């Protein structure tokens, strides 16, 4: 039976670039079912609707007509008989009135359409030449940023444009099962060329005027985009030493200052705290970048930053409006996964991601405070109830009895090392700069 002739509907609440969402849609598509994809990333109202319908704001959330199945893992764990019944129901029964309502006209589409019309009226579009090639109905990154800053008056607009471009790239080249990315094809995409042009314009952002919320959204988005940009241009770091160099030297020029990945994470978002195995704070007292740093470390950023390691949170994008709520949702989703937190009531054991060990100070500094923080940021679940029971039964010990163990969900750890005998590489095309300075070069 063709999908267009099926009376029922499968509704999937998703966000762009989400591997679990792609896996779920691929599974449903293979079943020959009509899938209605509801993107909740742009509309806080849809997030609120999702929470009301399911009791959770994490995605994907899957409905067969009016029956809520849950997330992708719940779909995969359905018994064959139960899945067959749901498929038959969708193929034979029309969508009932109490099924999840679809967004009328899609407010997101309207918003993008309005932006498109404004852009057309701006006079930016025209013909331009690059080398021997002509481009019609196009504009340069410089003109785009000028228009954004003039019309919107927001320093965060370049960041939003970047995050949308990098997320589109990620979505376009993520495999159907959500398990791999075709980075080679991504690096050759015209969209990536546009991204590179726009990334240069970050140097014009007025950082001093940003609010706390704008700083959080801006630097989280830039960090995640810079990791992908660096990987595309320089390749993935394959060992501890390469990772150290990557995170300490891959950088963007933002607001007239150079910000490496370490600077963004530990200098800005963690309130100028020492990073993993770092001896010094990123910014000295005389460093002008210190004025951009948050006054205090924000622990929720650890569930939004994606450094490219296996255990990192999925790539998402963030907006200043409701940023704290967005970060709490990211933390809840991370802790719901066993890679983030696993509770064994029988053994009286709690296993947490290595993130909680690396950044222990951000979560309270002691095992007890860390577990209390975890409980406060978990969604309602059996796991949360089990953890509460363990905590109420007595103090958590570091060994024996009730034990909290830090399990490494990342493939490698960053360690500090002396900068010596390293090949010099200066790469700044489109704004990614990786400075790997040799001992001889440093001596000059």
From TrEMBL:
GO molecular function, one term: electron transfer activity
Protein name: Uncharacterized LOC103034156
Naturally occurring in which organism (per UniProt): Astyanax mexicanus (Blind cave fish)
UniProt domain DUF547: residue ranges: 209-335
Annotated region (Disordered), positions in chain: 97-122
Gene3D superfamilies: Glutaredoxin, Winged helix-like DNA-binding domain superfamily/Winged helix DNA-binding domain
Domain Glutaredoxin, chain residue ranges per copy: 10-69
Gene Ontology BP annotations: cell redox homeostasis
InterPro entries (alphabetical): DUF547, Glutaredoxin, Glutaredoxin_subgr, Grx-like_ET, Thioredoxin-like_sf, WH-like_DNA-bd_sf, WH_DNA-bd_sf
């Amino acid at each position: 039976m063709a999908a267009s002739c099926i009376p029922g509907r499968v509704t999937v609440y998703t966000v762009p670039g989400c591997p679990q969402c792609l896996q779920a849609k691929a599974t449903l598509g293979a079943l020959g079912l009509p899938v209605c994809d509801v993107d909740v990333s742009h509309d806080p109202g849809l997030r609120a609707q999702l929470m009301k319908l399911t009791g959770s704001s994490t995605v994907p959330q899957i409905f067969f007509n009016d029956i809520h199945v849950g997330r992708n893992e719940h779909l995969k764990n359905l018994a064959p008989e139960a899945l067959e019944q749901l498929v038959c129901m969708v193929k034979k029964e029309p969508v009932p009135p109490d099924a999840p309502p679809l967004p009328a006209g899609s407010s997101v589409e309207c918003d993008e359409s309005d932006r498109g019309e404004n852009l057309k009226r701006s006079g930016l579009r025209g013909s331009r030449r690059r080398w021997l090639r002509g481009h019609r109905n196009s504009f340069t990154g410089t003109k785009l940023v000028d228009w954004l800053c003039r019309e919107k008056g927001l320093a965060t607009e370049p960041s939003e444009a970047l995050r949308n471009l990098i997320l589109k790239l990620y979505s376009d080249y993520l495999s159907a099962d959500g398990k791999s990315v075709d980075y080679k094809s991504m690096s050759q995409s015209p969209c990536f060329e546009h991204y590179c042009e726009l990334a240069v314009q970050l140097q014009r952002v007025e950082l001093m005027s940003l609010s706390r919320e704008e700083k959080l959204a801006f630097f989280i988005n830039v960090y995640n985009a810079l990791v992908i940009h660096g990987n595309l241009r320089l390749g993935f770091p394959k060992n501890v030493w390469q990772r150290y160099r990557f995170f300490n030297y891959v950088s963007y020029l933002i607001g007239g200052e150079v910000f490496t990945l370490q600077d963004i994470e530990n200098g800005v978002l963690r309130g100028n705290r020492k990073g993993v195995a770092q001896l010094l704070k990123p910014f000295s007292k005389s460093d002008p970048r210190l004025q951009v740093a948050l006054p205090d470390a924000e622990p929720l950023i650890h569930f939004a930053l994606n450094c490219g390691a296996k255990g990192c949170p999925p790539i998402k994008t963030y907006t200043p409006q409701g940023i704290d709520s967005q970060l709490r949702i990211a933390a809840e989703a991370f802790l719901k996964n066993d890679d983030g937190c696993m509770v064994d009531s029988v053994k009286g054991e709690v296993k947490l991601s290595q993130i909680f060990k690396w950044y222990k100070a951000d979560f309270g500094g002691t095992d007890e405070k860390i577990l209390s923080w975890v409980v406060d940021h978990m969604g309602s679940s059996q796991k949360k109830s089990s953890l509460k029971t363990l905590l109420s039964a007595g103090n958590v010990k570091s060994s024996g009895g009730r034990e909290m163990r830090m399990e490494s969900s990342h493939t490698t750890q960053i360690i500090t090392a002396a900068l010596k005998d390293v090949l010099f590489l200066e790469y700044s095309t489109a704004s990614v700069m990786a400075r790997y300075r040799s001992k001889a070069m440093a001596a000059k």
